[in-house]
Amino acid sequence: FVKDAKTYQLRVMDHKRKELVRSEEIQGLEDSQLHGLTTQTFSIPEELGTLHAKTLSKTIQVQVEFTGLMGATIGTCQINRLDFRSSKPWPYEVTSDNKVVCGIELCVVEDEPLVSSPMLYSSGMGMMQLHQAMSDKDVEDVQHNLSCELLLHSAKDLPAPRTPEMKDVVLTIMSSESGKELRKIGLFQSDVPSGNQLASVDFKETRAFVRDRMYWGGDAQDGAQYIKIAISYGKRSGNATSTEIIGVTDPIKISWKEEKEYIKLWNPDNRRLLGGIYLSYRLVTEAEAVADGTMKSGRVALPQITAPVELERRVSGRTGNFAPGSAEEAIEQAVINAEAQNRALLQRCKKEDSNSPHDFPGMRVNNGWREWDNLDALFESMGPNPLVMSEDLGPQVARGYQHSSNIARDVAKYLPAAKSPADQMLNLEMLRMYVKDDVGKGQSMIRPVVCKDANEITGPPDMTWCPDPPVYVPMTNLTEKDKETVRLACYKPEQNSSLLFVDANPNYNIREDIWGALHPEKTKYKHLQSLAPTHGRVKDDCIMA
Fold first, then answer.
1. According to the model, what pLDDT value does residue 292 have?
2. 3-class DSSP state for residue 237?
3. Residue 37 contacts by C-beta under 8 Å, 6 or more apart in sequence?
4. Distance CA 300, CA 306 (A)
5. HSE (CB half, 13 Å, CA atoms) of 23?
6. What is the C-alpha separation between 224 and 256, in angstroms, rounded?
7. pLDDT of residue 42
8. What is the 8-class DSSP label of residue 391?
9. Selected residue with higher pLDDT from 75 and 392
10. Cα(522)–Cα(511) distance, rounded to whole angstroms?
11. How far is CA 290 from CA 30, 38, 130, 209, 279, in A?
C-alpha cells in the first residue's frame, strides 16, 4: 500500500457489482511504524472486519479502497462461495487491471451451507462427474415433463487458461431466471496450439438433458424454457473440482423447434467477448428422452421445478411517444380523445338527419343506382362490419378508468366566482331546485378512456387518471352512451353508420308495393322503378352457361 494512506474500506458486491455491504473506516499503520517500508501488513479488528450480507449470487467480490481525500480503488478479489476454500481463512489476490497489487485473507461463513450442484449425467465421449444431489429444501414441485435436450459440439476462441494446472473445461448449465445450477458437465480436455493464445474444446457430441421452469405465451409462444451456459477452466482435486470462470452466454430460448447455432460467451464483469460455443437444442418430452436411450440409466434425477407459468410481459395502453406523465403526453391523449368523440358526434348527427348524404370516394350514382370502382371501395363505404361491432360477437372489454363526478363541483366551473358565503348558499339552493339528489354527493363509475373529456385532460395537463398498465373492463358494465361512442368512433368521417332503406331491404321492389309510390316517405325511391343499367356478360355468349 502507499505509505501516505491512513484509512481503508472494504466493499462487498455480487457478481453484477451491486453493493451488498461496506465496512467502516479501517485504520492502517502510522508512518512511524513502517520503518521505511512502502507496503504494510496489518490485522483488521473483528468488529470492523465482520460484514453481514445477503445474496443469492454464488460469486461475490470484495473491493479494497482508500478513504478520505485519497479515496480511490486499490483492487478487487473474487470468491466463489461453492469453493471449499472459501469456508476457511484463505489468502486471495487483490487485482487491478489484471495486475496483482496486494492481498487479503478472509473466509465466508454461510448461515446455511450452499449445495454445490445437482446430480449430473451426460452421454457421449465426454467425461462425467457426479455431484451431491439437491437438498429437499431446494426441490420444488413439478407439473410438466418437458426437458431441454442439448447436443454439445465444440467451443472456439476461448482465452488460454491463466493457471497452467487448469487446462480442462467444465460446462455449467444454469437457470436464466434464478441462476440456479441445473447441470455441470466435465471435465473436457482443451486444445491450445503452440504459439496461440486461443483455446478450443471438442465436446465430442455430448448430449445432456436439463429441466427448468416452463413459460407460455408472449415471446415463449407455444412453450419455452430459458437457460444460460457458463464455461470454466477446472482442475479436479479428490472429490472436489476448483474452477476458473471463462464466460457466460446470454439467455438461450429452448423451444420445440430444433436449433443449431453458435452462441457467444461474455465476460460476466465487463461484457467482453470471450469466444463461443456450438450446440444444438430443442424441447423434448420425457418419453422422447427415454426413447433416445440417454436417460435410461437410473442415475438420472431431473430437478423438480415449479408449475408452468405464463411469461409476464408488461404492456402499456399509451403511445410511448412522450415521457410518461408529461404535459406533452396529456395533450396527445386529449387530441386522441377529441378526434374519437368528434367522429362519434358526426355519426350521431348523420343518424338524426334523414337527408344525410351517403357519398363516398370511389362511389357514383348512375340512373339512381350506386356503382363503385372496386370491391375495396364498396366494403370500405359500408364501414365496420355490424357483426364485429355487435355486443355478442364484438369486443367484450374496453380500456377504462375510474370516473368521479360531483354536480356541485362540475357546475361551479361554469359559474362566476362567489363573492360571499351568501352567494354560495344561493347557488346551492338553485341547484337543488333542478336536481332531486344531493348535489354535494359524489358519484363514481367506469368509463372508457376514449370518452374522457379532452378539456379535463389538458386543463391543467394531467395523466394520473389513466391507469398504466391499462385496466380492461367488460363492455356490459359501461353506459349505453359510452358504448355507442366507442362503436361510432370506429367510423371514418366519410362513412355513414345509418343504413339506407335499400341496404336494409335489398329485396324490396317498389313495383310490387301498390301504395309505395304514393306514400310520401317513399316517393324518394321512385327512381328505383327505372331498370338498372345493363352490362354485357361473358357467360351470356356461352352456349354452355
1. 61
2. strand
3. 3
4. 19
5. 23
6. 7
7. 80
8. T
9. 75
10. 12
11. 69, 65, 20, 11, 21
Classify residue 157 as left (phi > 0), alpha (psi -120 to 50) or beta.
left
Secondary structure element (H or E) that encloses residue 76, with its range = strand 73-80
171 preceded by a cis bond (ω within 30 of 0): no
Is-cis flag, bond preceding 469, omega within 30? yes
| HEC string for 436-500 | CCCCCCEEEEEEEHHHCCHHHHHCCECCCCCCCCCEEEEHHHCCHHHHHHHHHCCCCCCCCCCCC
Q: Give residues with Cβ within 8 angstroms of 483, minimum separation 6.
A: 391, 475
Closest among 76, 66, 53 to 7, alpha carbons compared: 66
Q: Report d(CA 230, CA 122) in Å as an integer.
A: 16
Amino acid identity for residue 135 in this structure: S
Distance CA 498, CA 353 (A): 10
| d(C-alpha 211, C-alpha 301), whole Å | 10
Contacts of 134 (CB under 8 A, 6+ apart): 115, 118, 119, 303
Is residue 412 classed as helix, strand or coil in its secondary structure? helix
What pairs with residue 364 in β-bridges?
371
Rounded Cα gap, residues 477 and 446, in angstroms: 7
Radius of gyration of the chain (CA): 38
Q: What is the model's pTM?
A: 0.41
Residue reference for cell 385496466: 471
The SS3 assignment for 340 reads helix
Give the contacts of 347 (CB within 8 A, at least 6 positions apart): 488, 491, 496, 497, 498
476, 496, 313, 497: which is closest to 395 by C-alpha?
476
Note the residue count of the chain.
545
Helix (H, G, I), strand (E, B) or coil at 337: helix
* C-alpha neighbours within 13 Å on the C-beta side of residue 165: 6
Tell me the per-residue pLDDT of 222-242, one tens digit each, with 9 for 90 and over: 788 999 999 888 877 655 566
Residue with the three cell numbers 359559474? 415
* DSSP of 204-218: EEEEEEE----EESG
Handedness of CA 339, 340, 345, 350 (dihedral sign): positive
Q: pLDDT confidence of 140, banded at 50, 70, 90?
A: very low
- In this structure, is the dihedral angle defined by the CA atoms of residues 26, 32, 33 and 35, taken in order, positive or negative? positive
User: 460: cis peptide before it, omega within 30°?
Assistant: yes
Could you tell me whether strands 215-216 and 309-310 are parallel, antiparallel, or unpaired per DSSP bridges? parallel
**pLDDT at res. 199:** 84
DSSP state of 123: B
Q: Of 280-294, 419-433, 485-499, where does mean pLDDT reach its minimum? A: 280-294
Partnered with residue 184 across adjacent β-strands are 172
Q: Which of 69-73, 287-291, 383-387, 508-512 has the highest mean pLDDT?
A: 383-387
Query: Quick check: helix, strand or coil at residue 191?
Result: strand
CB 160 within 8 A of CB 198: yes
Identity at 266, one-letter amino acid code: W
Can you tell me the distance from the alpha carbon of 418 to that of 428, in angstroms, rounded to the nearest whole number? 11
Contacts of 482 by beta carbon, 8 Å cutoff, 6+ apart: 447, 448, 451
